[in-house]
Amino acid sequence: xxxxxxxxxxxxxxxxxxxxxxxxxxxxxxxxxxxxxxxxxxxxxxxxxxxxxxxxxxxxxxxxxxxxxxxxxxxxxxxxxxxxxxxxxxxxxxxxxxxxxxxxxxxxxxxxxxxxxxxxxxxxxxxxxxxxxxxxxxxxxxxxxxxxxxxxxxxxxxxxxxxxxxxxxxxxxxxxxxxxxxxxxxxxxxxxxxxxxxxxxxxxxxxxxxxxxxxxxxxxxxxxxxxxxxxxxxxxxxxxxxxxxxxxxxxxxxxxxxxxxxxxxxxxxxxxxxxxxxxxxxxxxxxxxxxxxxxxxxxxxxxxxxxxxxxxxxxxxxxxxxxxxxxxxxxxxxxxxxxxxxxxxxxxxxxxxxxxxxxxxxxxxxxxxxxxxxxxxxxxxxxxxxxxxxxxxxxxxxxxxxxxxxxxxxxxxxxxxxxxxxxxxxxxxxxxxxxxxxxxxxxxxxxxxxxxxxxxxxxxxxxxxxxxxxxxxxxxxxxxxxxxxxxxxxxxxxxxxxxxxxxx
Length: 504
What we know:
Elements: H1 3-12, H2 23-32, H3 43-50, E1 75-77, E2 80-82, H4 85-94, H5 96-105, H6 115-124, H7 135-145, H8 152-163, E3 170-171, E4 174-175, H9 178-189, H10 195-210, H11 214-217, H12 226-243, H13 252-255, H14 261-273, H15 275-295, H16 301-307, H17 315-344, H18 346-381, H19 391-418, H20 422-425, H21 432-459, H22 462-503
Antiparallel strand pairs: 1-2, 3-4
Helix pairs in contact: 4-5, 4-8, 5-8, 7-8, 9-10, 9-14, 10-14, 12-14, 14-15, 15-17, 16-17, 17-22, 18-19, 18-21, 19-22, 21-22
């Protein structure tokens, strides 16, 4: 409003002091704000007022043609009659629930509006002086904002902004500056809050996001413009949280412990509103979880991958660690307990594993005997022993014995390393290892026969091919067996960890 308009307003209208709550102060304001200096209170009246008296206040005469406050239709609300926009705005904000229900909960249809909405609309249409009132904003308010699909609370908020945009940002009767949003977030996430209070706070957080309320609040006075930055940060954090990118590799046990969506959004609202206070609070909880996990002495691979980050002040990362941390700690404690139990039972498990490895070695010996006898018989047919010497036959058996010894040592080492896990490394059934090796021996015989033919053709001597095959194939069998033993050691050593994860 221009200076000229202000001067004109003060010259033609009495100053409304009905919003002064204290009756004595209201009397003082009336006496000191009388426009006529001859009738305005002076020192004698003020002294009398200070002494407890009630000096008379001159009644002001409204010039002809001027629209006074008392000449405007009043809107009754909660026992008070309101003719000024700012006064009504404060009353509606104070009695938020009653205002939302009366004017916006059931507005009726355009042809048959509810009584509350009709009275409010008729009262608003009085402010149609383009020189002093925001007439264009009023049209948008009545035709679009107050009759749209927004919730009653959001409609009331937009009405308050038109009535008095300089008032502090208020929503559902509560001030909504950044520090207030931080308190709201704490109420929505605190385990010490009453269940009803926590549920109501989460509902408000959900409504702030779903109705996009913060940009509306940012247009009010009293430093409400800070809410624009809060809204921008909050939206970015919520978008990253909802994407779930940090949860890659996290087991279902960890995902199940994450905060529910409304609770997570409340945490992120707090960090967006007052980062200097909320972020250190989350960081302290992250440090506590990491210390508790380190105390178990176990390493949980998926949590270690999650904990690796270049930005340890990222609220989304911290909230993910806080949510999944208890699952990692529980898993680490279970792994530690299983490891201790394994150590207590190690002696008995080791003896049983060694005994089983010896039995497996006997089974392998039988397979080798069969394979070596078949190979020896085949050697006679290719005239390996044509010179009457048994040296080639003895070499075959020596090589077979050496490979069998290597296999036995592999089984013995596996038994010592795995103890109670050795049985599982041999297969689901007791004779799986023997069956697998018997099949492998069959494959080796076939490969050896092919080598005999290939080398025999290349050298012109089947005897040379047979001697090469009986040396190369057992060595290859030994190498493959050692490789398989390494794989069994790796799988068997971690099998109990896998079982624990499956049980959880």
